[in-house]
Write a structure and sequence with these properties.
It contains 6 helices and 8 strands. By secondary structure, it is α/β, with parallel strands linked by helices. The protein folds into 2 domains: 108 residues, K homology (KH) domain (GMP Synthetase, Chain A, domain 3, 2-Layer Sandwich), CATH 3.30.300.20; 99 residues, Ribosomal protein S3, C-terminal domain (Ribosomal protein S3 C-terminal domain). It has a 4-stranded mixed beta sheet. Strands 6-5-8-7 form a 4-stranded antiparallel beta sheet, covered by helices on one side. Helix 5 packs antiparallel against helix 6. Belongs to the universal ribosomal protein uS3 family.
Length: 219
């Protein structure tokens, strides 16, 4: 049997960093972890409700949380920040107020910053959302994967990409796995900087799972 491991966790401390930076006592660790998940869910729900277009792409690549004694710093890496900012000029302030009410941040200050991504289609989360929208519109799985790889190849500097979709593909009665690959994706090389995401999409045929590996560079 093959022993699988998350490519991001495999490279922590070498080419990957933690998305949450804080310290806690062992008895309070689970509370801090649950709070991080609630913060991320609250931000994603807000962006989903207030985005300017109905394309289905939220555009959130990553949410990093840094906690201190008196401050919670949240950095949202977005591919298309204009979708949120232009639709609601005071969107960041409104989101900040909602989070402060939700988590009762009385003794801690909450600060939110949005950082745009230069090459959106070089991020696996954005690419997975793009594929999910294609699948919901009943585009063939093979065609959706090919289009995603073309976008990454043309609009981002990557050395390799691998896309895998599993589930009831194209409405088949038996679940299966389909995948495609372009370039090199050295998963066993620790110094290789690989970005990875796992994404779930609900279609009329059932739930499909999307996995994307992007080989950026080798350090």
């Amino acid at each position: 049997m093959g022993q699988k491991i998350n490519p991001l966790g495999f490279r922590l401390g070498t080419t990957q960093d933690h998305h949450s930076l804080w310290f806690a006592q062992p008895k309070n660790y689970s509370e801090g972890l649950e709070e991080d998940q609630k913060i991320r869910d609250c931000i994603k729900n807000y962006v989903q409700k207030n985005r300017r277009t109905s394309s289905g792409i939220e555009g959130i690549a990553c949410i990093k949380i840094q906690k201190r004694i008196d401050l919670i710093q949240i950095i949202i890496y977005m591919a298309f920040p204009k979708l949120l900012i232009e639709s609601r000029p005071r969107g960041i302030e409104e989101l900040q107020i909602n989070l402060q009410k939700e988590f009762n941040c009385i003794n801690r200050k909450l600060n939110i910053a949005i950082t745009p991504i230069a090459k959106p289609y070089g991020n696996p989360n954005i690419l997975a959302e793009f594929i999910a929208v294609q699948l919901k519109n009943r585009v063939a799985v093979g065609k959706a994967m090919t289009k995603a790889i073309e976008l990454t190849t043309k609009k981002a500097d990557t050395k390799g990409i691998r896309v895998q979709i599993s589930g009831r593909i194209n409405g088949k009665e038996r679940a299966g796995v389909e995948g495609t690959k372009k370039g090199r994706v050295p998963l066993q090389t620790i110094r290789a900087k690989i970005d990875y995401c796992s994404y779930t999409v609900r279609t009329i045929y059932g739930v499909l799972g999307i996995k994307i590996w992007i080989f950026i560079d080798e350090e």
